[in-house]
Amino acid sequence: MAMLEIRNVQKTFRTYAKPGLFHRPGARKVASELPVLRGVDLTVEKGDVVAILGPSGSGKTTLLRCLNFLETADAGQLVFDGESFDLAHASRADIARLRKKTAFVFQNYNLFRNKTALQNVTEGLIVARKLPKEQADEIGMKMLAKVGLADRADYYPRQLSAIVDAVLLGEGITAYGPLQRNRYDDPDVEHYDYDPQKAKEVLEAAGCMMGEDGYYYRDGEKIGFVLSVGAGDQARLDIAQAAAQQLKEVGIDCTVEVPVEVDWGGQMAYLIGWGSPFDADDHTYKVFGTGKGANYSSYSDPLVDQYLTEARESDDPAVRAEAYDKFQEELAENPAFTFICYIDANYVAKDTIQGISADTVMGHHGVGIFWNVCEWTID
User: Fold this and answer.
1) What is the mean pLDDT of residues 116-141?
2) What number of CA atoms fall less than 13 Å from residue 314's CA on the CB side?
3) pLDDT given at position 16
């Protein structure tokens, strides 16, 4: 017997017309229909690793959500571990019983904001599996260690990704480098994660002392700076204010300003952003290269210049990968910026346009959405 079988799963999303002046209570008129799942069948044997592939909007996530009753299917049967479930008419008891044996990983984090990282991991073990807290904590710590978060077990979600969650509402990821969403990314380079305790240790090791007002001082001068933000970009302003608040909590007096005119040579700090186009060269060489056009901070590192030049002068992917690995390692040793986050580009279009896909790197402000326009259709 197969470990999992699904048969004839169907799901159609409907929009409904606004009720008119005269209408029967409870009656709704369908304005449009979008069939997403049309009789999906699947068999999974024990030990199988199955991937569902398809373009954006083809129903991959909808199918998974239906299997865990996060969406109610219009029809379909699920057989799991020898037990059958009606995907269109399951009881709460049936759903609870299935969820004790299965798991669903969301595309966004969906963490409990009032629980620590460890508590988020152990919640299901304690509540659903009824494990003792000590045993659940032991398992949870092993899982956190696997992903390099053992030292963040007591951190709350707002401390781990406050800006992404609070400002971007989850529409982005925390950043550790300039090639993070590029094919040449090296995830093993040193990450300068948000760590208030470590920040205080660094400040005190440099001779700073905490004053009665909650800010650090050195040689009688308060540690602080002004963070400038360009006018007209509310998202960046909100990010700057969130970063300033985090710095204040550490003991650094950071204030945010929106200057009428940017003084590139005289500013103390500036929140800058740039895109991630298709090739890594475009947003590295001109940004970090000595004297290049988009190097607004006058950053200079001979090894960075060397590795970026080696990467741009070769069309061999292996040579470029090696050069970009060295570049990222050197940049982590001698940072040009504090990397904060990558912002997702979200698109809004009429529902009569089908085929829009964001399954590629779009570049600055999401330019490039028309990359597959030849596949679009208009109903």
Assistant:
1) 91
2) 15
3) 64
Alpha carbon distance 297, 325 (integer Å): 23
Q: What integer best gives the mean pLDDT of the chain?
A: 85
CA 145 from centre of chain: 20
d(CA 335, CA 302): 13
As a whole number of angstroms, the distance between CA 205 and CA 363 comes to: 40
Q: What is the DSSP secondary structure assignment for residue 76, as one 8-state letter?
A: E
Q: What's the mean pLDDT in 35-50? A: 92
Q: At residue 111, what is the residue type?
A: L
The 3-class SS string of 300-365 reads CCHHHHHHHHHHHCCCCHHHHHHHHHHHHHHHHHCCCCCCCEEECCCCCCCCCEECCCCCCCCCHH
Query: Cβ(14)–Cβ(30) under 8 Å?
Result: yes
140 Cα distance to chain centroid: 22
Q: Would the pLDDT of 59 be above 60?
A: yes
SS3 content of the chain, % helix, strand, coil (to 5): 35, 20, 50
Query: For 195-247, what is each residue's pLDDT tens digit?
Result: 788 889 999 999 999 999 999 999 999 999 999 998 888 888 888 988 888 89
Residue 215 in tokens: 């800010």
Q: Tell me what pLDDT residue 262 has.
A: 82
Contact status, residue 13 vs residue 33, Cβ threshold 8 Å: yes
Contact 62, 36 (CB under 8 A): yes
